[in-house]
Structure formats: C-alpha cells, structure tokens
C-alpha cells in the first residue's frame, strides 16, 4: 500500500484540452483571444458588411452599369479571402506556419484590399444615379456599405502597419539570438 501513489497515473487519454487562449479539439486548436482582438473584430466586420455589399448589388439589375461588375468582383473576392484569412487566424495558423512573415503579409493584404475597395466604392457611387426606384435603394445602400467596408479595411491596414512596425518589420530578427 505504501507504493500506491507511485503506481497511479493521473494523465488522461482525452484529446481535448483548454487553456485561457486556446482550445484544442482533435489536434485543431482555436485561438479564442483572436476573436476578441481588434484585428479579429475588424476582420469579422469586414466579412459581414462585405457580404452586404455584394448581396445588395447582385440582387439588383447590376448589368445596366458595367462598373458594377468590378464592384462585384472586388467585393466577392475580398469577402472570400477575408473569410479564409479569418478561419486561418482563428485556427492558430500563425503558430503553425511560423515561416510566413504574418505582420508583413497582413499589411500587404489589407493595403491591397483598401485600394481595391476604394476603386469599388467610387465605381459603385458613380453608378448609383443610373438606377431608379427599387434598384436605386439597393445601389445607394451598397455604396454606403462599400464606403464603410473601405474604411474598415483602411483601419485594418493602419492596425497591421502598427503591428508590423512593432515587430520590427524583419522576420529574420526574430530568429537571431541576442
């Protein structure tokens, strides 16, 4: 009976564990802190309002204004890329793909997205006057949401720039021993 504590194994074989910032289920870890971070909230807002932009345009007679094809292309493409990025970041891909310079990659993504949404917003706003009645409301709302999404992408670009500058902007410096 004296050697009983030495024979007891307190480890379990469960594949689920939880910490304050990560939850792991079957070798997939979820970064719960990302959901509450500024970057996570901004990305979620971009996804939701980006969906509204392309849903409003595609529900109207967008083929009457050729510029709206560009708006649809930009809004749908960035909606898909933002959704994939959100999934990647919530699944802790920053830690799993450590060879990717994430601060720089996010800065480039958000910078390009801001410029593309700027052009989409301008094309959308200019095309609103071609529509009347029911379609006018859709186009006006989509232009308003496009300006909002453009502003959020610009905010994300600023946040990514601050994160990139705070990181030093050089991925090689993180691996050099001091």
UniProtKB/TrEMBL annotation:
Organism this protein belongs to: Tachysurus vachellii (Darkbarbel catfish)
Family affiliation: Belongs to the MAL family.
Its membrane topology: Multi-pass membrane protein
One matching Pfam family: MARVEL
Domain MARVEL: 34-165
Transmembrane segments: 40-57, 69-92, 104-127, 139-162
The protein's name in its UniProt record: Plasmolipin
UniProt xrefs under InterPro entries: MAL (IPR013295), Marvel (IPR008253), MARVEL-CKLF_proteins (IPR050578)
Protein's GO biological process: myelination
Molecular function GO labels: structural constituent of myelin sheath
Assembly behavior: Forms oligomers.
Location in the cell: Apical cell membrane; Myelin membrane
């Amino acid at each position: 009976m004296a050697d009983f504590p030495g024979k007891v194994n307190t480890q379990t074989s469960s594949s689920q564990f939880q910490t304050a910032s990560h939850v792991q289920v079957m070798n997939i870890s979820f970064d719960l802190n990302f959901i509450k971070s500024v970057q996570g909230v901004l990305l979620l807002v971009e996804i939701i309002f980006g969906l509204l932009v392309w849903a409003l345009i595609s529900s109207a007679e967008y083929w009457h204004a050729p510029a709206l094809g560009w708006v649809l292309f930009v809004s749908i493409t960035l909606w898909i890329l933002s959704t994939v990025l959100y999934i990647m970041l919530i699944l802790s891909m920053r830690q799993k793909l450590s060879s990717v310079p994430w601060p720089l990659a996010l800065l480039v993504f958000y910078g390009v997205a801001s410029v593309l949404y700027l052009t989409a917003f301008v094309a959308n706003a200019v095309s609103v006057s071609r529509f009347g009645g029911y379609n006018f409301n859709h186009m006006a709302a989509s232009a308003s949401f496009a300006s909002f999404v453009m502003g959020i992408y610009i905010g994300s670009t600023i946040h990514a720039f601050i994160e990139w500058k705070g990181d030093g902007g050089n991925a090689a410096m993180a691996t050099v021993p001091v």
